[in-house]
Design brief:
By secondary structure, the chain is mainly α. Helices cover 81% and strands 0% of the residues. Helix 1 runs antiparallel to helix 2 and helix 2 runs antiparallel to helix 3.
Length: 104
């Protein structure tokens, strides 16, 4: 059975992380920024699973940490979407520049 080399997995994970960073720093829409953060968290999950497979193949610590990050990311997304919906209802915009100028 052929396995994928660790360097290829790390390359994909690094690419996903930097695509997420680019999306976070260049976009002004809160939903797009939230998706970029989720992309960055998923690249970390790939790292955990890859290092677990190659360094400790008999243990499931990396998978446990990945599941923990998935749960935290789901909770973070739920709270962030609730805040974004509330912001849109009150100000009719989800643009970051508009949100910075709003007074509460």
């Amino acid at each position: 059975m052929n396995t994928i080399p660790l360097s290829h997995i790390l390359f994909v994970s690094t690419a996903l992380f930097f695509i997420g960073m680019y999306g976070l720093f260049t976009r002004r829409n809160l939903i797009t920024m939230l998706m970029a953060i989720e992309l960055m968290l998923n690249s970390v999950n790939i790292n955990f699973v890859a290092f677990n497979k190659y360094l400790y193949p008999g243990k499931i610590d990396g998978v446990f940490f990945s599941l923990f990050i998935i749960v935290i990311a789901a909770a973070e997304a739920a709270v962030a979407i609730a805040i974004i919906i509330n912001l849109y209802r009150s100000h009719h915009s989800i643009d970051v520049d508009d949100a910075a100028e709003m007074k509460y």
